[in-house]
Amino acid sequence: MTLEFNIDAQFYMILQVARTLMVKVKRTSRHFGRSWLSPGPCGRYCVPGRRMQTRSQISSNTRDSTDNFFHRLPSELLDIILGKLSVLELSVFGMTSKDITNYVVDYISSQKWTNKEIFQNFHHPTYQEQQATIGHYRELGLLFKRCTLLLPTEERLKFIFRRFSQIPCFMLEHCFVQGCLGFACLGSFLQTLIAGWDELECHRVFNFLCNLTDILSKTEVLINNKPGAHYFEEVEIRLFYRKVLLDPWSNRLEFHFWLIELLKPWPMVSQAHLLLFLYGPLLPEGTIGWQELVERALPHGALWDLAQALLLLFSKLEVKGWFADSILAILEELTVIPQPWHVENVARLLVLCDSHLCYAFLASKALNGHLQEISRLIVYIILVCEKDGYHMNWAVKLVQQVCKVFSSDPEKFLFLQNLENMFAETTRDFFELSVGGNLVEDREIFQTLSILLDSSARFHAKFLHMFLKRPEM
């Protein structure tokens, strides 16, 4: 009985020593972190290679005392100690010295530890379980980040994904459960792992993932086929790109980098197609609503994510090889996939894209002489403003800006005449549609007609008021 008590007491003392060392490392790393995590010239953090060379010098006194103490322990006892530490404690303990890092790496390489910590239940979790599992993978990301610090990037990724590729929910075409949490957990892990890495290292991560999953060739098959022909694969690739590479980043700069990485390998038409894979509207059953874009007007929320992605691309044109004309061409291609969209959907997307991109798109068409097309779009933009509660002053200023594209008064008058004629033509179209068809469709069309008349009146009142306020009037 006394012997058992002494062993337990000694083990408790050893565990306390380990935790004391971790506290020392935490305190040292707080001061140390200000140098090795400082931003580089391009605004991103210094490369992992540089951190490796510096991190090993955290505290020579701590390293020496750690080596002398833990070298005397049997490996079995050290495994027991490591098994008592949480994932976060293990990640800090591995920073105490190079030898302890090697102990930790050996420990987390065991199948027993992998089964306990990496294999989790990703299917049908409650909200609390979902948050806990994602948080657990965030902590695992920190553990693998710290214990592989001395390895080159390629070796780090091979070491990590040798274990993670064993999980079906992390790989394409291996899990068929709707609502699986696997990709979200992998994204949380990856974000923590590569936080602070420079763009070259992140590009290597992207290439490694592409080779591991063969996702580029799978994407190419979908892009070259009719939209919706392989609906399950479309949604799976969408989820992988979104949950693993895009959604985890709240920082717009990081998000922009990964979005550009996904689009760069493809020609412009394929970039538009891929953007719709990523951000096109989802139906309640979880498939992408290709035909809904063509056949009916979609609500505000269905096009929000797509608009935000386009707006981010348009606002970051300093990226090499990307210009305003490129984004406008992509937007033009978007609105004819799989066929020309319902005009209200195009108008709603332009409204969601904000003033600059909306004006640039309309001005480009005005310069190319497409008066009928831009007049129809503006009528529907005015309709969307009335439907979705936007201030009509915004539409009035937009028309005023488009007018300035035309150099002569006759050209401006022709544009305004086309716009007024389009108001009349669109009103007649809605009226004719409301005469025939079933009761539900009649009611919806008549409601839209009423909104169009209200929006027309509101727009013209604001438009005339703008001219009345001019000094010469």
Question: Can you describe this structure?
Answer:
The protein has 473 residues and is mainly α. Helices cover 72% and strands 0% of the residues. The chain contains 24 helices and no strands. α8 runs parallel beside α10. The longest helix is centred in the first third of the chain and has 35 residues. 28% of the residues are buried.
Summarize the structure.
72% of the residues lie in helices and 0% in strands. It has 473 residues and is mostly helical.
List strands and helices in order, with pairings.
Blueprint: H1 2-36, H2 48-55, H3 60-70, H4 75-84, H5 87-93, H6 98-108, H7 111-117, H8 127-147, H9 153-164, H10 182-194, H11 199-213, H12 215-223, H13 231-246, H14 252-263, H15 268-279, H16 290-295, H17 304-315, H18 324-334, H19 343-352, H20 354-367, H21 371-388, H22 392-403, H23 409-435, H24 439-468
